[in-house]
Design goal:
By secondary structure, the protein is mainly beta. The protein has helices spanning 2-12, 145-148, 267-272; strands at residues 36-42, 46-51, 68-75, 79-84, 88-93, 105-106, 119-125, 130-134, 139-144, 156-157, 171-174, 181-183, 200-205, 209-214, 228-229, 239-245, 249-254, 260-265, 282-283, 289-295. The chain is elongated.
Length: 297
C-alpha cells in the first residue's frame, strides 16, 4: 500500500496551489475618545479621573490622613507624569485612570518603582506642555511632556539628582490653549487658574533666599539631565523649589511649632530679588522655612 501511494504521488503530484507567506502581525488598537477630564491626585499618591472640567476641588474627599496634592484639567488622550525620587519619570495614560467614585487607585499599582524609590510629584497634560524641572541641588532645565513619555511601566531616566538631593515640584511654563492645572501645596482646595506663558523664574531656598531671573536664561533639554545652575546656594542650604511665573508666586513652608505657612509674592517683591541666573539671590523675611514654591499667575 505504501508503495502504491508513493507511486501515485510521484505520477500525479503538482506544485502547491495554496500560497503561504508571512503577513504583518495583527495589532488590537483601542480608540480613546477625546473628552475633557479632571485628574485628581492625593498627597499619598491616590489617583482618579472625573469627567469634565470646572469641578470644585473642595468637594473631593480623601482617606483619613490624606489630602489634595493637585487637580489637573486635561483630556482623556493626555498623560499623567509621575516624578520619582530617583529622577525617573513614569507615564500613565489618563484614559487608564480609575473613575472618580471612591478614593481612586494607588499610583504604585500603575507603575513599577525601583526598590527604595518614592513617587514625589505629579503633572497631567498634553504632550506640548512645557515644564520647569529642578532639583534640591539648585539645578534645573525646561522640557516638554513629550520628551518624558515612556511606554514602559519602569519609566524613563530623565532628571539627574546627586546624592542626598531630591526632585522639586515641576512648574508649568507654557500650556498654550491646553486646559490648566492647579496645585494645592498646603492641602487646601483652590480654584483653577488660566496661565499665560511664563516670562520669569523664581527660586526659593530652604534658607529663605529668593532669586528671580528671565526664563530665557534656561534651555530646553529634550533628553533631560541635570540642567543649569538656578541659584548659588550657601553651604547646607538647598533649593526648596523653582516656579515659572508672569506676575506672582506662592511660597509655602513650615513655621514655628511645625505649623504650615505660606505667603504670596507679587511682581514688586519678585522684582526686588531680580538678578542673573546662578546668583545668590536676596534674603527674604518670610518668618518660616520654605519647603516649596508654586506659580499663581
Amino acid at each position: 500500500m505504501v508503495k502504491e501511494i508513493e507511486a501515485d504521488a510521484k505520477q500525479f503530484a503538482d506544485a502547491r496551489r495554496t500560497l503561504i507567506q508571512a503577513e504583518k502581525r495583527a495589532v488590537a488598537e483601542v480608540k480613546v475618545v477625546d473628552e475633557p477630564v479632571t485628574v485628581v491626585v492625593s498627597e499619598k499618591g491616590w489617583v482618579r479621573a472625573r469627567q469634565g472640567h470646572g469641578h470644585d476641588a473642595a468637594a473631593f474627599a480623601f482617606k483619613a490622613g490624606d489630602g489634595l496634592y493637585g487637580t489637573f484639567e486635561c483630556r482623556t488622550v493626555d498623560h499623567l507624569l509621575v516624578f520619582g525620587s530617583n529622577g525617573r519619570v513614569y507615564t500613565v495614560p489618563v484614559a487608564n485612570l480609575p473613575g472618580a467614585r471612591g478614593d481612586g487607585q494607588p499610583i504604585t499599582t500603575l507603575i513599577d518603582l525601583d526598590a527604595g524609590t518614592q513617587p514625589l510629584h505629579y503633572f497631567a497634560g498634553a504632550e506640548a506642555v512645557t515644564l520647569l524641572l529642578s532639583g534640591s541641588g539648585g539645578y534645573g532645565f525646561l522640557a516638554r511632556i513629550e520628551h518624558m513619555l515612556s511606554r514602559q511601566r519602569g519609566g524613563k531616566a530623565f532628571i539627574t539628582v546627586g546624592a542626598g538631593e531630591q526632585v522639586c515640584r515641576p512648574s508649568v511654563v507654557a500650556l498654550g490653549s491646553e486646559p490648566k492645572s492647579t496645585p494645592a501645596p498646603s492641602g487646601q482646595a483652590q480654584a483653577v487658574i488660566s496661565f499665560a506663558a511664563a516670562t520669569h523664574v523664581a527660586c526659593a531656598s530652604t534658607g529663605g533666599r529668593i532669586l528671580t531671573f528671565e526664563i530665557g536664561e534656561l534651555k530646553l533639554m529634550e533628553k533631560g539631565g541635570r540642567g543649569l545652575t538656578l541659584i548659588d546656594l550657601e553651604p547646607k542650604d538647598t533649593l526648596a523649589g523653582a516656579a515659572a511665573y508672569t506676575r506672582s508666586v506662592r511660597i509655602f513652608g513650615i513655621g514655628r511649632g511645625g505649623k504650615a505657612r505660606e505667603e504670596q509674592l507679587e511682581i514688586r517683591s519678585l522684582n526686588n530679588a531680580r538678578a542673573a541666573r546662578a546668583r545668590k539671590g536676596k534674603a527674604a523675611d518670610l518668618g518660616f522655612k520654605p519647603t516649596g514654591i508654586v506659580r499663581v499667575e
